[in-house]
Amino acid sequence: MRFVEAKGARIPAIGLGTWELRGRTCARLVEQALRLGYRHIDTAQIYENEREVGEALRASGIPRSEVFVTTKVWTSHFAPHDLERSTKESLNKLRIAEVDLLLLHWPNPRVPLSETLDALAQMRKLGMCRHIGVSNFTVALMEEAVEKCPAPLICNQVEYHPYLDQTKVREACARHEMALVAYSPIAKGRVRKDDVLARIGRAHGKSAAQVCLHWLVQQNVSAIPRTSRLERLSENIEVFDFELSEDEMAQISVLGSREGRLTDFGFSPKWD
Fold it and tell me: Active site includes 47?
């Protein structure tokens, strides 16, 4: 397993995203992923599966200290007292003393960012999380967050795959020594039918999805693909035994544009 390092945090380069996974399916997949060697599990309050993620963590038999667990606070809980209550609820559901990474799930302009960041930093100080960060923040919001947060922010978790150009966010993360964690890294399955990725994959004996994930890892990005199929779990983590050439990296990068975004809501910020 490779790691992405940022301000003292070591984030496994491939993790399991759990959005839309529920109940026994979620618990079974997370447990199987841990048995296969995954050491990075990403959940969130709004996913309503923290309890199942915690169950899987215990059932796997993997020591807690070896698994990097991320959860996220939903935007309706950004007022300081709400954020603390929400974090305690997440820990109770997961049945763990602390998460490795606690994120603000989306920006919320209705609550002053400095107040929310103060509360987030306080969670770290109180030992409820080892590291803190943000998710779905634009470059401007990242700059503001870094300036206003009393503790180091270690990452920005954003949508990133070959069809979405995230150069500006990537450069901002590098500038602030923050990691970029990529959700929807295989573009919700779209990469599996991509001719460029398939052609590059044939040269390495890999699938289009594996090439896509390695393209991210080779940029020092941590990717958290979600799957509801057990056979995909193995495929998604077997991406560390080959390297892409500069030319292959470039061929994949040119597929990206600003129009490639798949996750966009009415409450989304004005994207870069």
Answer: yes
